[in-house]
Design brief:
Elements: H1 4-19, E1 25-30, E2 34-37, E3 45-46, H2 60-68, E4 73-76, H3 118-128, E5 131-136, H4 140-144, H5 147-163, E6 170-173, H6 184-201, E7 206-211, H7 220-230, E8 236-243, H8 255-258, H9 268-283, E9 288-296, H10 304-319, E10 325-329, E11 343-346, E12 351-355, H11 358-365, E13 372-374, E14 377-378, E15 383-390, E16 395-402, E17 408-415, E18 419-429, E19 434-440, E20 446-448, E21 452-460
Parallel strand pairs: 1-17, 3-4, 4-5, 5-6, 6-7, 7-8, 8-9, 9-10
Antiparallel strand pairs: 1-14, 2-13, 11-12, 13-15, 15-16, 16-21, 17-20, 18-19, 18-21
Length: 461
């Protein structure tokens, strides 16, 4: 809970900003110049099947959060787990030896209530109104048996989903093949091999592959272009990038380094997104862009709210581009600090302990889904964000990051529409101070707290 003194302090700064005649930062947006529609799948999530216990998901607070955050896509059985799992013979061990590996596999006898099987996963997707995104194991057959047996396993999987009317239309083929012995050329071949088997059962499905932007020294982005060029069936290329990981796109790893990136990755992320669309168009392809494994790697340091601010920074990057889907890594497990997860658990993963500040970012951005993206210009590179227009509710939404150590007075210039009268302000800063306020709009400006993420909604005429 925020202290009364903190609230009054922020309220004073907010009011001071409104009546200030000399805003330090000028923002401008033209409401009539929409670029793209922000995907309904922006706030996607993962279920890493071996970490999702039955008792944990009996807690209705998780389902309630997923509905509030509009989690409309859930990726299962996870990332690395998909390269060793067998959907009809689950072990509950996300990262352990493969059942088909007769040399190294040892049965751990993990009870079924400690993990989420396919039927339980689909049931939960339906409960929270999310689209299932199911992974296909392409590694086990190639490494331990035969491709024919791997393909048969995939065929039985999609046939089971069809017979049970699960309605699974999003299928991802393997996971991070570059780290599992798949060259780009081989991965393109396997995408098509498995896609053809899957489409024999259900022609009306979407095929997803994955690769990376970085590291640049390994030409990962160029490799992804090779996959897109060679594959006949690839519909979506998802990129796996976690800020702070040494094996990804070069970026910072510490709190101080994050505070000096304007924007995140110092523009490299934006560069590769733009390059993606240009290159795909030149190929004559229609491959869509996704980020179905994005997040924070390692230990950032700082407060739990610093992690949330970094996640918000990353979210702003993705909102700027016409992506198909994004699934955050992760809800309740992952590398580094627990503060980078949506929630943490206790009782060895069987009970919900608490929601982390990261959860609030998804709640704030949920209203941006399926609205129109607008370019937001700023006179200060350290204060930036995204604007969207909700045609249905006639609302202009601003998502703003103040990445400075000072409170910033901001003045907004609008074109293409006029504010009707009120503005709704929702903000949190790195210390955990929060503010929610609805007041009459004033052209003289408003204040953004230091190191804060804010959502501001204007009622438009």
């Amino acid at each position: 809970m925020m202290k009364k003194t903190d609230y009054l302090s922020l309220l004073f700064l907010f009011i001071a900003g409104i009546f200030s005649l000399n805003a330090q930062v000028n923002l401008s947006v033209n409401v009539s110049e929409g670029r793209h529609t922000i995907t309904p799948y922006l706030n996607g999530a993962h279920f890493v099947y071996g970490a999702e216990q039955d008792n944990l998901y009996k807690d209705e607070r998780i389902a309630d959060w997923m509905r509030r955050a509009k989690v409309k896509a859930i990726r299962w059985p996870g990332g690395t787990a998909v390269m060793t799992y067998h959907w009809d013979a689950l072990t509950g061990d996300n990262f352990g030896p493969d059942r088909w590996d007769t040399v190294n596999y040892v049965e751990k006898n993990i009870p079924a209530f400690e993990y989420m099987d396919l039927d339980e996963y689909i049931a939960y997707c339906r409960k929270v109104d999310a689209e299932p995104m199911v992974g296909v194991n392409i590694k086990s057959g190639r490494q331990y048996r035969t491709d024919a047996e791997g393909l048969d396993e995939a065929r039985r999987l999609i046939q089971y989903c069809k017979d049970k009317n699960f309605g699974v239309k999003l299928w991802y083929i393997g996971n991070e093949g570059y780290a599992k012995g798949f060259s780009p050329e081989m991965y393109a071949k396997y995408i098509d091999m498995y896609a053809e088997v899957l489409k024999e059962v259900d022609p009306d499905i979407t095929i997803i592959g994955d690769w990376k932007f970085g590291p640049e020294v390994k030409n990962r982005f160029e490799e992804s272009m090779t996959i897109i060029k060679l594959s006949k069936h690839l519909d979506i290329m998802e990129y796996h990038e976690k800020w702070g990981n040494e094996w990804g796109l070069a970026g910072g790893r510490t709190l101080e380094e994050w505070k000096s990136e304007f924007p995140l990755y110092n523009g490299k992320f934006d560069y590769y997104c733009k390059e993606f669309f240009e290159r795909v168009k030149l190929m004559g392809k229609h491959t869509k862009l996704a980020f179905n494994e994005w997040g924070v790697g390692g230990n950032l340091g700082g407060t739990a709210h610093n992690y949330a601010l970094l996640v918000a920074d990353y979210m702003l990057l993705m909102m700027r581009h016409d992506i198909y889907s994004a699934c955050y890594w992760n809800m309740n497990m992952g590398q580094g600090s627990k503060d980078n997860r949506v929630f943490t658990t206790k009782s060895k993963g069987a009970e919900l302990e608490k929601f982390n500040p990261v959860a609030k970012v998804f709640e704030l951005t949920a209203s941006a889904l399926e609205t129109t993206y607008l370019e937001l210009k700023s006179t200060d590179k350290r204060v930036y964000g995204v604007a969207t227009f909700d045609e249905k509710n006639k609302e202009l939404q601003l998502y703003l990051l103040n990445k400075t150590c000072e409170n910033q007075l901001v003045k907004l210039s609008l074109a293409g529409a006029k504010v009707k009268g009120k503005m709704h302000f929702n903000s949190f800063d790195e210390s955990g101070n929060e503010m929610q306020q609805t007041i009459r709009y004033n052209r003289d400006g408003f204040t953004l707290p230091a190191y804060s993420f804010s959502k501001i909604v204007f009622n438009m005429k």
